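Notes from hallway chat w/ T.B., transcribed later so I don't forget. T.B. wanted the structure written out for a chain they're using in a teaching module, and asked if we could keep both sequence and C-alpha cells in one place. Agreed to drop them here.
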Amino acid sequence: MVGNSGKGHVLVHNKVIQKLHARLERYFPERRLFLKSDADTRFIRLKPETQFIAVAGAGVVVTWSIIATAILLMDSIGAGNFRDQARRDQQVYQARLNALAAERDTRADEALAAQQRFNTALARISEMQSELLATQTRGRELETGIGVIQATLRQTMKARDAARDQLAELKLAMAASGDTPGVTDGKIGERTLEFLSAALSDTADERDKISSDAQDALLHADEMTTELALLHDRNDAIFRQLEEAMTVSVAPLDKMFRAAGMNTDSLISQVRRGYSGQGGPLTPISLSTMGEAPSPDASRANQILDQMDRLNLYRIAAEKAPFALPVKKAYRFTSGFGYRRDPKTGGRRMHAGVDFAGPVGTPLYSTGDGVVVHAGWLSGYGRLVKIKHEFGIETRYAHMSRIAVKVGQRVSRGDRIGDMGASGRVTGPHVHYEVRVGGQAVNPMIYIKAAKDVF
C-alpha cells in the first residue's frame, strides 16, 4: 500500500508539471537558436521553462533598476531640500547670533555708562556732604552769633534802664538843692551843680549810644535771621539732592541683589561684620541737644549717612558676589542650565551650569572676589578651577586648557584665572561655568541677568 501511495504522488506531480509545461508552452513556445560557424552549424533549444526563467529574471532586473533609480532620485531631491533648509537655518542662526552679539555690546556700553554715572554720583555725593557739613558749621556759628548779640542787647537794655534810674535820682537831687538857697558854702553848691550837669551830660550821651547800639544790634539780628532762613532753604535743597542721589544709586543695587535671590539685610550685616571700623565722614552726626530730640536737619543728615553706608556696603558685596561674565571676548552661548540631552550618550541628564563656546586659549576671568579652593584635573570636568566667594557661594570653571592660579590664592573680580579649552568630557572647546550656593547648583544666568542694568 505504501508503494501504491508513492506511485500516486509521483503521478500527481507529473500531471502538475505537464499542465504547467503546457501553459508555459502556450506563451513561450519552444524555440531553437542556431549558431553558425565556418565549419559547423549548431543550435540551442530553448524550452518554455528556460524562456520563462529568462523573462522573469529580466523583469526582476528591470524592476530593481527602476526602483533603485527612483530611490536615488528621491534621495537626491531630499538631500537638496535638507541642504537648503540647513543653509536657511544656518543663516537664521547666524543672524540671531549677530543680534545677540549686538545686544551684548549694547548691554556692555550701558553697563559702562551706568558705572560712570555711579562714580559721578559718588563724587557729587562726597562734594555735597562736604558742603552740607560746612553749611551746618556756618549755621551753628550764626546761631551762636545771634545768641551773643541777644545777650549783649539784654545787657545794653539793662544798662539803659540803670542810667534812666540814675538820671531820675540826679534830677531829684537837683530839685532838692534848688529848694535850699540859704546854704552858706556857695562854692560847694556850685561844684555840686557842675558835677551834676556833667553827670547828666554823660548819662545822656551813654543813653544815646546805648540806644544806637541797640538799634544796630536789632538790625544785625534781623539780617542774621534772614541769612539763617536762606541757609536753611539751601540746606533743604542740598538734602533733597542728596536724598534723590542716594535713592537713584542704592535702588538698582538693592534690586540686583533681590533679583539674584539674596537677602539684602543678611548680606549687609555680613559685610558690615567684616568691615566694622568706624570714623571719618560716614560717622553719624552727634550734636548736644541738652536732652531734647535731634533737630530735623540732624535726622535727615544721619539718614543720608546711613544710606551712604548702605551704598558702600552694597558696593563691597557686589565685588564679592559672582555678577560678572567669565568670558569677555566673543563667545557663543551653547547650553543653558537644566535637564538636556547628553551630547555623548544621547540620554537625558542634569546640566548644572551654562556653556560658553569659543576658540581654545580664550581668556577666562573670575566673576567675583574670592579664594581658589581647587585648581587641577577633576574627572569629567577636565582642568577645573573652583573659587569660594562670600555668602556661601562657589563658582566653577571647567574644561580649561590652561590654569593660571593656585589653591589658596586670593583673586578679585576680573582677574584672569586661565584659558578656555576642551579638556575632560566635551565635544568641543568651551567653558562650563557653574554657580553653587550652599553646595547646590543654581542657574548662573540669575546673577548675570540681575547685574545687566548695574554693571
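Follow-up for T.B.: Confidence is low (pLDDT under 50) at residues 179-186, 279-283, 285-290. Might be a good example for the class.
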